[in-house]
Amino acid sequence: MQFKRKHLLGLYDVTKEEIETILDNASLMKHILSQNSKKTPHLQGKSIITLFYENSTRTRMSFELAAKYMSASAANISASASSVAKGETLIDTGRNLDMMGCDLIVIRHPMSGAPHLLSKYTKASIINAGDGLNEHPTQALLDMYSIREAKGQIEGLNVTIVGDVFHSRVARSNIWGLKTMGAKVTICAPSTLLPPELEKTGVKVTTNVREAARGADVVMALRIQKERQHSGYYPSLREYSNIFGINKEVISLAKKDAIIMHPGPINRGVELTSDVADSGRSVILEQVQNGVAVRMALLYLMTRRNMDEIIN
Ligand code: CP
Fold first, then answer.
1. Are 55 and 78 in contact (CB under 8 A)?
2. Which residues line ligand 1 (CB under 6 A)?
3. pTM greater than the 0.90 cutoff
4. What integer pLDDT is reported at residue 312 of this predicted model?
5. Which of 40, 102, 136, 184 has the most beta carbons within 10 angstroms of its beta carbon?
6. Residue 59 CA: which ligand 1 atom is closest?
7. Which residues on adjacent β-strands are paired with residue 48?
8. d(CA 168, ligand 1 centre) in Å
9. Residue 74: CB partners within 8 Å, gap ≥ 6?
10. 64, 139, 285: residue to mutate for ligand 1 pocket, most atoms within 8 A of CB
Protein backbone atom coordinates (compact mmCIF):
# COMPACT_ATOMS: atom_id res chain seq x y z
CA MET A 1 0.00 0.00 0.00
CA GLN A 2 1.24 3.50 -0.84
CA PHE A 3 1.56 5.87 2.15
CA LYS A 4 -0.24 9.05 1.11
CA ARG A 5 -0.11 11.24 4.23
CA LYS A 6 1.61 14.59 3.98
CA HIS A 7 1.82 14.96 7.78
CA LEU A 8 2.00 12.55 10.71
CA LEU A 9 0.36 14.45 13.56
CA GLY A 10 -1.04 11.55 15.60
CA LEU A 11 -2.27 7.96 15.37
CA TYR A 12 -5.93 8.75 16.19
CA ASP A 13 -6.92 8.51 12.51
CA VAL A 14 -4.17 6.30 11.07
CA THR A 15 -5.48 3.04 9.60
CA LYS A 16 -4.26 -0.52 10.21
CA GLU A 17 -3.03 -0.70 6.60
CA GLU A 18 -1.01 2.51 7.04
CA ILE A 19 0.55 1.24 10.29
CA GLU A 20 1.42 -2.07 8.60
CA THR A 21 3.03 -0.19 5.69
CA ILE A 22 5.22 1.79 8.11
CA LEU A 23 6.20 -1.31 10.12
CA ASP A 24 6.96 -3.35 6.97
CA ASN A 25 9.17 -0.55 5.63
CA ALA A 26 10.87 -0.31 9.05
CA SER A 27 11.82 -4.01 8.74
CA LEU A 28 13.66 -3.21 5.50
CA MET A 29 15.34 -0.21 7.16
CA LYS A 30 16.41 -2.35 10.13
CA HIS A 31 18.18 -4.64 7.69
CA ILE A 32 20.12 -1.61 6.37
CA LEU A 33 21.05 -0.67 9.95
CA SER A 34 22.67 -4.08 10.43
CA GLN A 35 25.03 -3.56 7.45
CA ASN A 36 28.62 -2.36 7.75
CA SER A 37 27.82 0.76 5.75
CA LYS A 38 24.50 2.33 6.75
CA LYS A 39 24.59 5.02 4.06
CA THR A 40 21.75 4.88 1.50
CA PRO A 41 20.66 7.38 -1.19
CA HIS A 42 16.93 7.27 -0.27
CA LEU A 43 16.74 10.93 0.81
CA GLN A 44 19.40 12.46 -1.42
CA GLY A 45 18.46 16.07 -2.17
CA LYS A 46 15.95 16.29 0.69
CA SER A 47 16.19 18.69 3.65
CA ILE A 48 14.99 17.63 7.10
CA ILE A 49 14.87 19.95 10.12
CA THR A 50 14.32 18.80 13.70
CA LEU A 51 12.69 21.62 15.68
CA PHE A 52 12.79 20.76 19.38
CA TYR A 53 11.22 23.04 22.00
CA GLU A 54 11.69 20.36 24.71
CA ASN A 55 14.59 18.12 25.72
CA SER A 56 15.13 14.82 23.95
CA THR A 57 17.83 12.18 23.55
CA ARG A 58 16.19 9.25 21.73
CA THR A 59 13.67 10.95 19.43
CA ARG A 60 15.85 13.81 18.24
CA MET A 61 18.98 11.72 17.77
CA SER A 62 17.17 8.87 16.00
CA PHE A 63 15.50 11.28 13.54
CA GLU A 64 18.81 13.01 12.87
CA LEU A 65 20.69 9.73 12.39
CA ALA A 66 17.86 8.34 10.22
CA ALA A 67 18.03 11.42 7.97
CA LYS A 68 21.83 11.30 7.74
CA TYR A 69 21.96 7.53 7.07
CA MET A 70 19.65 8.14 4.10
CA SER A 71 21.75 11.05 2.74
CA ALA A 72 19.37 13.94 3.56
CA SER A 73 20.62 17.37 4.56
CA ALA A 74 19.68 17.42 8.25
CA ALA A 75 19.83 20.25 10.79
CA ASN A 76 18.49 20.85 14.28
CA ILE A 77 17.00 23.96 15.87
CA SER A 78 16.53 24.04 19.63
CA ALA A 79 14.24 26.75 21.00
CA SER A 80 16.91 28.24 23.28
CA ALA A 81 19.37 28.72 20.39
CA SER A 82 16.84 30.05 17.85
CA SER A 83 14.99 33.30 17.22
CA VAL A 84 12.08 31.82 19.22
CA ALA A 85 14.07 33.13 22.22
CA LYS A 86 13.70 36.63 20.67
CA GLY A 87 9.92 36.25 20.39
CA GLU A 88 9.46 34.76 16.91
CA THR A 89 6.21 32.84 16.55
CA LEU A 90 5.96 29.17 15.55
CA ILE A 91 4.15 30.14 12.33
CA ASP A 92 6.86 32.63 11.34
CA THR A 93 9.55 30.05 12.17
CA GLY A 94 7.82 27.49 9.91
CA ARG A 95 7.40 29.97 7.04
CA ASN A 96 11.10 30.89 7.25
CA LEU A 97 12.12 27.21 7.17
CA ASP A 98 9.90 26.75 4.10
CA MET A 99 11.77 29.54 2.30
CA MET A 100 15.06 27.74 2.97
CA GLY A 101 13.77 24.72 1.04
CA CYS A 102 12.96 22.47 3.99
CA ASP A 103 11.01 19.36 2.90
CA LEU A 104 10.07 17.95 6.31
CA ILE A 105 10.00 19.36 9.84
CA VAL A 106 10.08 17.11 12.92
CA ILE A 107 8.67 19.09 15.84
CA ARG A 108 8.51 18.53 19.60
CA HIS A 109 6.61 21.22 21.51
CA PRO A 110 5.21 21.61 25.05
CA MET A 111 1.83 22.83 23.68
CA SER A 112 -0.68 20.20 22.54
CA GLY A 113 -1.62 20.94 18.92
CA ALA A 114 1.55 22.87 17.98
CA PRO A 115 2.41 20.44 15.09
CA HIS A 116 -1.19 20.69 13.83
CA LEU A 117 -0.94 24.49 13.77
CA LEU A 118 2.43 24.40 12.00
CA SER A 119 1.06 21.99 9.38
CA LYS A 120 -1.56 24.59 8.35
CA TYR A 121 1.06 27.22 7.52
CA THR A 122 4.01 25.32 5.95
CA LYS A 123 4.62 23.67 2.60
CA ALA A 124 6.93 21.19 4.39
CA SER A 125 5.59 17.90 5.77
CA ILE A 126 5.28 17.84 9.57
CA ILE A 127 6.00 14.91 11.91
CA ASN A 128 4.85 15.25 15.51
CA ALA A 129 7.71 14.20 17.83
CA GLY A 130 5.61 14.83 20.94
CA ASP A 131 3.15 17.68 21.62
CA GLY A 132 2.22 18.56 25.18
CA LEU A 133 -0.16 15.98 26.65
CA ASN A 134 -1.50 14.95 23.24
CA GLU A 135 0.45 12.40 21.13
CA HIS A 136 3.90 10.98 20.36
CA PRO A 137 3.02 8.89 17.29
CA THR A 138 6.52 7.79 16.27
CA GLN A 139 7.15 6.41 19.78
CA ALA A 140 3.98 4.30 19.54
CA LEU A 141 5.00 3.10 16.07
CA LEU A 142 8.40 1.95 17.33
CA ASP A 143 6.66 0.34 20.32
CA MET A 144 4.33 -1.56 17.98
CA TYR A 145 7.27 -2.53 15.80
CA SER A 146 9.09 -3.89 18.88
CA ILE A 147 5.99 -5.83 19.99
CA ARG A 148 5.51 -7.33 16.52
CA GLU A 149 9.21 -8.24 16.36
CA ALA A 150 9.14 -9.99 19.75
CA LYS A 151 5.70 -11.61 19.47
CA GLY A 152 5.18 -12.04 15.71
CA GLN A 153 1.89 -10.14 15.80
CA ILE A 154 -0.03 -7.45 17.71
CA GLU A 155 -3.62 -8.62 17.20
CA GLY A 156 -5.09 -10.39 20.23
CA LEU A 157 -2.20 -9.62 22.58
CA ASN A 158 -2.85 -8.40 26.13
CA VAL A 159 -0.90 -5.14 26.44
CA THR A 160 -0.74 -3.48 29.87
CA ILE A 161 0.38 0.14 30.20
CA VAL A 162 1.21 1.32 33.75
CA GLY A 163 2.15 4.78 34.96
CA ASP A 164 1.52 8.48 34.55
CA VAL A 165 -1.11 8.11 31.85
CA PHE A 166 -2.59 11.56 32.41
CA HIS A 167 0.60 13.34 31.27
CA SER A 168 1.62 10.67 28.75
CA ARG A 169 1.47 11.40 25.03
CA VAL A 170 3.14 7.97 24.59
CA ALA A 171 0.15 6.29 26.26
CA ARG A 172 -2.35 8.21 24.11
CA SER A 173 -0.62 7.29 20.83
CA ASN A 174 -0.22 3.68 21.93
CA ILE A 175 -3.90 3.42 22.84
CA TRP A 176 -4.94 4.61 19.35
CA GLY A 177 -2.35 2.47 17.56
CA LEU A 178 -2.68 -0.72 19.59
CA LYS A 179 -6.51 -0.65 19.46
CA THR A 180 -6.35 -0.14 15.67
CA MET A 181 -4.02 -3.16 15.42
CA GLY A 182 -6.41 -5.34 17.47
CA ALA A 183 -4.58 -5.58 20.81
CA LYS A 184 -6.45 -5.79 24.14
CA VAL A 185 -5.17 -2.80 26.11
CA THR A 186 -5.29 -2.43 29.91
CA ILE A 187 -4.37 0.90 31.49
CA CYS A 188 -3.25 1.13 35.12
CA ALA A 189 -2.50 4.30 37.11
CA PRO A 190 -3.42 6.03 40.36
CA SER A 191 -6.91 7.49 39.85
CA THR A 192 -5.37 10.99 39.97
CA LEU A 193 -3.22 10.15 36.93
CA LEU A 194 -6.05 8.70 34.80
CA PRO A 195 -7.64 10.95 32.14
CA PRO A 196 -11.45 11.17 32.46
CA GLU A 197 -13.60 8.83 30.34
CA LEU A 198 -10.61 6.75 29.23
CA GLU A 199 -12.84 3.64 28.95
CA LYS A 200 -14.56 5.28 25.96
CA THR A 201 -11.42 4.54 23.91
CA GLY A 202 -12.12 0.80 24.36
CA VAL A 203 -9.40 0.07 26.93
CA LYS A 204 -9.80 -1.64 30.30
CA VAL A 205 -8.93 0.67 33.20
CA THR A 206 -7.76 -0.37 36.68
CA THR A 207 -5.90 1.10 39.65
CA ASN A 208 -4.59 -2.33 40.71
CA VAL A 209 -1.18 -3.06 39.16
CA ARG A 210 -1.32 -6.79 40.00
CA GLU A 211 -4.68 -7.15 38.29
CA ALA A 212 -3.26 -5.23 35.28
CA ALA A 213 -0.15 -7.44 35.01
CA ARG A 214 -1.97 -10.78 35.36
CA GLY A 215 -1.86 -12.65 32.02
CA ALA A 216 -0.20 -9.78 30.12
CA ASP A 217 1.88 -10.47 26.99
CA VAL A 218 3.41 -7.00 27.17
CA VAL A 219 3.97 -4.79 30.23
CA MET A 220 4.84 -1.20 29.34
CA ALA A 221 5.92 1.11 32.17
CA LEU A 222 5.60 4.87 31.68
CA ARG A 223 7.85 7.52 33.14
CA ILE A 224 6.63 9.58 36.08
CA GLN A 225 6.87 13.02 34.48
CA LYS A 226 8.27 15.00 37.39
CA GLU A 227 8.55 18.14 35.22
CA ARG A 228 4.77 18.17 34.65
CA GLN A 229 3.72 17.39 38.26
CA HIS A 230 2.54 20.79 39.47
CA SER A 231 0.20 19.45 42.16
CA GLY A 232 0.07 16.43 44.46
CA TYR A 233 -1.06 13.61 42.18
CA TYR A 234 0.40 11.06 44.67
CA PRO A 235 1.91 11.41 48.17
CA SER A 236 5.57 10.68 47.28
CA LEU A 237 7.72 8.88 44.70
CA ARG A 238 8.43 6.17 47.30
CA GLU A 239 4.71 5.58 47.81
CA TYR A 240 4.11 5.56 44.02
CA SER A 241 6.88 3.02 43.59
CA ASN A 242 5.54 0.80 46.41
CA ILE A 243 2.02 0.70 44.96
CA PHE A 244 2.50 1.06 41.17
CA GLY A 245 6.16 0.21 40.54
CA ILE A 246 6.91 -2.72 38.21
CA ASN A 247 9.14 -5.17 40.09
CA LYS A 248 9.88 -8.91 39.89
CA GLU A 249 6.83 -9.83 41.94
CA VAL A 250 4.48 -7.85 39.67
CA ILE A 251 6.11 -9.26 36.52
CA SER A 252 5.74 -12.83 37.84
CA LEU A 253 1.96 -12.40 37.33
CA ALA A 254 2.36 -11.73 33.59
CA LYS A 255 2.71 -14.55 31.03
CA LYS A 256 5.99 -16.48 31.26
CA ASP A 257 7.14 -15.03 27.94
CA ALA A 258 5.88 -11.49 28.56
CA ILE A 259 8.12 -8.65 27.42
CA ILE A 260 8.87 -5.46 29.39
CA MET A 261 8.90 -2.09 27.67
CA HIS A 262 9.57 1.54 28.58
CA PRO A 263 9.78 4.54 26.21
CA GLY A 264 12.66 6.08 28.18
CA PRO A 265 14.11 7.92 29.92
CA ILE A 266 13.64 5.54 32.90
CA ASN A 267 13.38 6.73 36.50
CA ARG A 268 15.08 3.61 37.88
CA GLY A 269 13.53 2.46 41.16
CA VAL A 270 10.38 4.56 40.60
CA GLU A 271 8.25 3.13 37.78
CA LEU A 272 10.56 0.15 37.15
CA THR A 273 13.18 -1.62 39.26
CA SER A 274 16.63 -2.03 37.69
CA ASP A 275 16.53 -5.84 37.86
CA VAL A 276 13.37 -5.82 35.70
CA ALA A 277 14.60 -3.06 33.34
CA ASP A 278 17.86 -4.95 32.71
CA SER A 279 16.38 -8.49 32.65
CA GLY A 280 16.32 -10.84 29.65
CA ARG A 281 12.62 -10.06 29.15
CA SER A 282 13.26 -6.35 28.72
CA VAL A 283 13.19 -5.00 25.13
CA ILE A 284 13.87 -1.41 26.21
CA LEU A 285 17.15 -1.06 24.29
CA GLU A 286 15.66 -2.84 21.25
CA GLN A 287 12.96 -0.14 21.30
CA VAL A 288 15.68 2.49 20.91
CA GLN A 289 17.28 0.64 17.98
CA ASN A 290 13.89 0.09 16.36
CA GLY A 291 13.23 3.82 16.75
CA VAL A 292 15.90 4.57 14.15
CA ALA A 293 14.44 2.02 11.70
CA VAL A 294 10.85 3.28 12.13
CA ARG A 295 11.94 6.91 11.67
CA MET A 296 13.94 5.98 8.57
CA ALA A 297 10.80 4.33 7.19
CA LEU A 298 8.66 7.39 7.92
CA LEU A 299 11.12 9.88 6.41
CA TYR A 300 11.35 7.69 3.32
CA LEU A 301 7.59 7.20 2.93
CA MET A 302 6.71 10.84 3.55
CA THR A 303 9.37 12.43 1.33
CA ARG A 304 8.78 9.86 -1.42
CA ARG A 305 5.14 10.96 -1.35
CA ASN A 306 6.30 14.51 -2.15
CA MET A 307 8.44 13.17 -4.98
CA ASP A 308 5.49 11.16 -6.40
CA GLU A 309 3.38 14.34 -6.38
CA ILE A 310 6.05 16.21 -8.36
CA ILE A 311 6.44 13.39 -10.92
CA ASN A 312 2.69 13.02 -11.39
N1 CP B 1 10.95 8.27 24.44
C2 CP B 1 11.33 9.53 24.16
O3 CP B 1 10.60 10.32 23.57
O4 CP B 1 12.59 9.84 24.61
P5 CP B 1 13.27 11.28 24.43
O6 CP B 1 12.51 12.25 25.31
O7 CP B 1 14.70 11.10 24.90
O8 CP B 1 13.17 11.68 23.00
1. no
2. 56-59, 130, 139, 263-265
3. yes
4. 45
5. 136
6. 8
7. 74, 104
8. 12
9. 47, 48, 49, 50, 64, 67, 68
10. 139
